[in-house]
Design brief:
The complex is a heterodimer. Chain A is built from 13 helices and 17 strands. Chain A is α/β, with parallel strands linked by helices. By secondary structure, chain B is α+β, with helices and mostly antiparallel strands. Classes of the chains: A alpha/beta, B alpha+beta.
Chain lengths: 367, 616
Amino acid sequence: MTYKSNKELHDSQAKTTLKKLIQDFYEQFESETIPHIVLPSRTKKNIELNEESDVWVYGDTESLRSAKTVKGAKQILKTSYVVDLLIKGHLDQDKSSTLRELYYISENWDIAKFHEQSESDHLIEDLEIITGLQREDFHVRPEENGATMFGPIKIKEITKRGERTMHCQDEVGEAGYQIPYNVETVQFLEHDAKFIIAIETGGMYDRLIENGFDEKFNAILVHLKGQPARSTRRLIKRMNGELNIPVVVFTDGDPWSFRIYASVAYGAIKTAHLSEFMATPAAKFIGVQSSDIVEYELSTDKLNDQDIKALESELTDPRFETDYWKEQINMMLKLGKKSEQQAFAGKGLDYVTDTYLPERLGEMGVI
Amino acid sequence: MVIAEELAKKQKAISIAEFFEKNRQILGFDSSPRCLLTSVKEAVDNALDACEESSILPDIFIKIESKSKDNVTLIVEDNGPGIVKEQIPRVFAKLLYGSRFHSVKQSRGQQGIGISAAVLYSQLTSGRPAKIVSKIDKNAPAHYFELLINTQTNEPEIIADKIIEWDRLRGTRIELEMAASYVKGRRQSVYEYLKDTAIVNPHARITLIEPDNNQIIFERVTDKVPVQATEILPHPHGIELGILMKMLRYTERDKLAPFLRYSFSRIGLQTASDICKKSGLDPEKDPREVTLDEAKRLHEAFKTVKISAPPTDCLSPITEELIRKGLEKEHTIDFIETTTRPASVHNGHPFQVEAGIAYGGNLPKEEKVEILRFANRVPLLYQQGACAVTHSVEGIKWKAYSLDQPGNSIPVGPAIILVHVASTHIPFTSESKEAIADVPEIVQEIELALKEVGRRLKLYLSRQDKMELRREKEEIIQKILPLIAKKVGDILDRPTPDITPVVAKIMGNVFIQRHVSQNGKGCEVQIRIKNHSEAVRHFSLHETLPYSIQDPSPEPKIIPLGKQIDHLWKISLKPQEEKAIIYRLDIKIEEASKLPQLIAEQIDEELITGAKVVNV
């Protein structure tokens, strides 16, 4: 089957699934039922560990959105307008829009228009949950490109302008290989990697490249760019699953970075419906751990009120309900301090690649 | 009254300057902002009382000039009756002169020590005399005085005394320089005090000129001068032993029984003789010769002999209507309810409670409710936590009246609670007279008044909720649902679905629908009736046709109407119940699609969807 006809089939399936939702509304009118949709409740309280896949997914708590209230009725109205756009504007015409464009398109929808982008983003996620599809299936793209990666792996990417093959260490610029927003178009050809190290900040990613960490340890470096994009998480999962390469995550030592690790390893609360697709339960946390702050005598900042609130909230987050994380979180609360990845620079620019990372990787049994 | 005697006693022993220094706190002259506030208060209270006694609509002008951070000049001017020349020095420059301590009457002046205290404070801190102008009539001269108080003798010292030109009809003006400061933006400030004063004195116009020359006018909203509080004789239950002894000593009556009858209210011939008998005193005895021990027995007898409660018509409440106007003029609000309780008695003193609650408008939603406390029309700004009014507010379960109340404290929400206590004697917790004591009779009356306005607030809010719900439903059925139906039809390339059954459901209406289908040569008609409400619904349903119908079930009542026939069913549906009427028509289906609308009768139009409602 050719790429094109495959795509057409895919699109028509997406259309059928979306129409099914609208058909439900239609039938509700006909059967004299107030239009409504039932969705899993998307909160911290309603995520549970799927024993099989070992990632966090939505539980059984459902929330009802019904046209009985103005809020519910408007949600259903907006849902129908978005579905109309996705079918007639995207899938029928083979066009796509970004999340931001979609928000702007709604400007002309009168009372169905969105008041802020987070509202339309959220609705797209709802549609993913209802249909079991992903936004790419509706031709909806994220705003920014994925992050970059650098390391001993050769890939083939199918682009709109044909196939491109490249080695992500030898055939890319200093910044590395740019991860596309849809990584399903990427094939892995060959690799020589012992492990993948996912890094929160650009500064540390650049430091590791400059120090030749990838060559010395045969490591694939992936830049997370803060809270990682879906494509970055998906690519890490695919490399881990398809190529069997272990994954470690290296972030700042603060409550927000703990969440970055959690979304790579366990899945994010907001997109728990995609956890099985994007989370890498085998990913391990290198640090910066709360205990590292003490052990390596890193320079620190005081926790502010938001930090403390975030840590306290993590204590009731089911994803952090392990002895390891309880200890790390409580220790940070006790210290009242947080630390950045780059704090290692205080001990010399090579310290992190020559001392800290090898020590931690050794402890973790990765090297 | 204790303070009066204290003062009188001490006056001989020490100079009043010394006395003042020692008692600054209780006289209301402690912090620098409060010194100014107390002075304003004394002057304004005097002005309002004087106008009221002469049935003049008060026009009060207050100007505050600030030379430095803690030095101000206060000018207060009124259009009152003025003061005769001879009285001026003593009214302003003799402590306790003309005080109301022995008058049993509801008045503002019962509160504070008088304007002379402000004069003394001004003189002690600035060294300058008080400057007074007063004029009693259009044709009378305006007298100008500069006065100091002799702090050794408590007698006025006249620095200047002359006649000046003054372009006012009549009135009094006082100018005082003092160490004090003008503050803004807090509860205990001149601005707030005047604003609250304006609320409970809606007949007054009050103008304030702040140090930066900013002018604020609290305009009057009524031309009705309040009914004057009348003076009454003291009631035996409210009298203290010391006062009783003083009354005995200075009476003009020669015999005890008449003394009792004419010095107290509610003592008649019989009661006077009962009191004498009970205390073992001769009714013929000269009151001036009653000893301390005998006076004590007399005082005891007051408590044991049955004496009716004091008259209460001597009080002057603000009245519901004027509280409403007062609140409305100083705030933007959606709802106000006020109440004036019937007069009642505490410890032999008549008193009366009034309460108001204002809600909504631009009042802050997340903050504690503002409590405005008044005693004899004077705002109480200090010691809110110690006051019976606050305790009563805290003691009420406001959730029952639709206001949030975290803990058992002051409720939270966009509301103002106002309480006014009027009495010939307000029981204060202390001499600073800023908090009303927890006298059970007063607390009970305050609670009853608050609960009364609370109930009306709750009624209002639940009606608002219902209207909001109705409005919300209207928006759904009129704007949102039709758009959903159209969009859903468009996407599926199908006709727009009929929303009426869903509308009936959302509105909780009775839904009526006629369905016609072909059956052999004729048509079969089914009328479905469903009650989507939570109440039982009764009504009559009319099917008025130019044909007669066949095999109806149930049977209708048939009423011929010329060429037409009216078929009438009496319908009664339990909540959520559904019924059907079926019959046949010997006409073609095309013709049947032109049947006229069904008509419902004896039911509210808003409760029916799918039929025309006609109520004759």
